[in-house]
UniProtKB/TrEMBL annotation:
This is O-antigen ligase domain-containing protein. It comes from Paeniroseomonas aquatica. The keyword Transmembrane applies. The chain crosses the membrane at residues 52-70, 82-109, 129-149, 161-179, 249-279, 291-312, 369-389, 410-430, 436-454. The keyword Transmembrane helix applies. It comes from the Bacteria.
């Protein structure tokens, strides 16, 4: 085990914050963006992601609290809401041990295929172990964080602010790398790219460099900033002023375009109009006005910033045309054909195994739905759909009981939009979601909504009590 420079900086900070669980969650949200870095290298080939360090310390804090007899007020609501996700985890881990033996020999694309273009016979391997560990850890953090956030006096907006701060950080590093690729400016490659599990390459579309910032590849940066963009847009529409969302909306949108990620760009093209339409349908007149003001602000900012640039440097217009053409022609590329074939092979493997799948972590597909089907079967996919429906209803129920200016309302709105924005690119080009930040966002949504409903229940019980006169006798009145 060897500590990296990144880990030597991160570990003391985490230890200093070990008794401050909110700070650990904030730090996990921020450090998640350093996907290509490693806090430490284990065995020469496995890099511990930076976000796992504060995540593990947070789990240790929650475990110690329970060992000392601490109980959280929203346990029932949290476990009821997360029940489908917990059932999915149990089914997925069990399938990795059972189905890899039952359907041994079935052709699969393994998680780390060293023989490009060759499918391998199904057998239990390290892909099942690593993917299973990621799943267990992510869901454990989800449960622990959701329980913790049902306590009173939680600064919910600070968690949302940490997520938005990570967006600013990604944009800053993205522009820095873009300038470095164009001008030769120093770029801290040795500090940011220390995870041996990733092969970092510099990609370009003609003379235009593709930017990945602190991530392992441009598509990861585009997908992450798509979630940030959705979050900022919804905050603007709902008039929540957290970390200047209009500014970050413009910067994050530019970052998605700068990454030239097809999935990220398509997420904006498809998802943002749907979000505006939803706001206009559900928000009434005020929602429509806020949506139109947000559109106008983004358009004006784009014209003011980019207009003079295109007038002074016409070659930038040619570059935009080249990127647009490359994005539209993505369906004709060999990589697109390979990814499509991987999804078709995943569906074939699902049918071969009678809809049960080949076991969690056995097959690397190209998109999320195909990945869930082939790795966890129809049962796993139905459990995830059940969880999404339950989470959506739970959030709507809690939102109806909060005022528009309530910090909990801003947190629920922001993280719900971020989850949607992060999910859309994964549906197009993400075999799995292993980002700890994604699961912390789920925890923040569940924990905040539970706290709102607990407070509402207690307020209702208090209103059912009244004094009955001189006898000073407090009795309960029927609701």
């Amino acid at each position: 085990m060897q500590m990296t420079i990144f880990g030597l900086i991160l570990l003391p900070i985490c230890l200093f914050l070990a008794g401050q669980p909110v700070r650990l969650l904030q730090l996990a949200l921020i450090t998640q963006v350093f996907e290509a870095a490693a806090a430490m290298v284990i065995g020469g080939s496995f890099g511990l992601q930076p976000s796992l360090v504060p995540g593990l310390l947070f789990l240790g804090y929650i475990g110690l609290q329970y060992a000392l007899g601490m109980r959280y007020p929203g346990e029932r609501l949290v476990f009821q809401t997360l029940l489908p996700l917990l059932a999915f985890a149990g089914w997925a881990i069990g399938s990795a041990f059972v189905l890899t033996d039952v359907f041994a020999g079935t052709p699969v694309w393994p998680q780390r295929n060293e023989f490009v273009g060759i499918m391998m016979p199904l057998q239990f391997g390290m892909g099942n172990v690593t993917q299973g560990l990621y799943l267990i850890l992510n869901i454990a953090v989800t449960v622990g964080a959701a329980l913790f956030l049902t306590r009173i006096n939680i600064p919910y907006r600070s968690l949302l602010a940490a997520y938005l701060a990570s967006g600013y950080l990604v944009v800053f590093l993205g522009f820095w790398q873009f300038a470095s690729r164009l001008t030769g400016l120093w770029w801290p490659k040795e500090f940011l790219n220390t995870n041996p599990g990733w092969t970092i390459v510099e990609q370009s579309i003609g003379p235009i460099p593709r930017v990945q910032g602190p991530f392992s590849e441009p598509s990861s940066m585009g997908s992450y900033l798509a979630g940030v963009t959705f979050c900022c847009l919804w905050l603007c529409i709902r008039s929540h002023q957290v970390m200047r969302p209009r500014l970050l909306l413009c910067l994050a949108s530019a970052g998605v375009l700068m990454s030239t990620s097809t999935s990220g760009i398509l997420a904006l093209v498809v998802g943002l109009p749907l979000m505006f339409a939803y706001a206009m349908v559900t928000g009434g007149g005020a929602g429509i006005q806020r949506a139109l003001r947000t559109i106008l602000a983004v358009v004006v900012a784009g014209v003011v910033v980019l207009g003079p640039l295109f007038l002074l440097r016409p070659e930038f217009g040619d570059a935009v045309s080249m990127i647009t053409e490359a994005t539209l022609e993505k369906r004709e590329s060999s990589s697109y054909e390979e990814r499509t074939q991987a999804d078709l092979d995943a569906l074939e493997a699902t049918m071969t195994t009678f809809g049960l799948g080949v076991g969690w972590g056995s097959f690397r597909s190209s998109s999320l739905i195909a990945g869930l089907l082939v790795n966890s079967g129809v049962i796993g996919l139905l459990l995830i759909i059940w969880f999404v429906i339950r989470l959506s209803r739970f959030k709507i129920r809690a939102q109806a009981r909060t005022a528009a200016t309530d910090p909990a309302r801003a947190t629920m709105d922001g993280f719900a939009a971020a989850l949607g924005g992060g999910l859309i690119p994964a549906l197009m080009a993400g075999p799995t979601i292993n980002s700890l930040a994604f699961f912390i966002q789920i925890a923040c949504l569940v924990g905040t909504a539970s706290r709102v409903l607990i407070g509402d229940q207690r307020a209702s019980s208090r209103t059912n009590l009244r004094w009955l006169g001189p006898g000073d006798k407090l009795q309960s009145r029927a609701a």
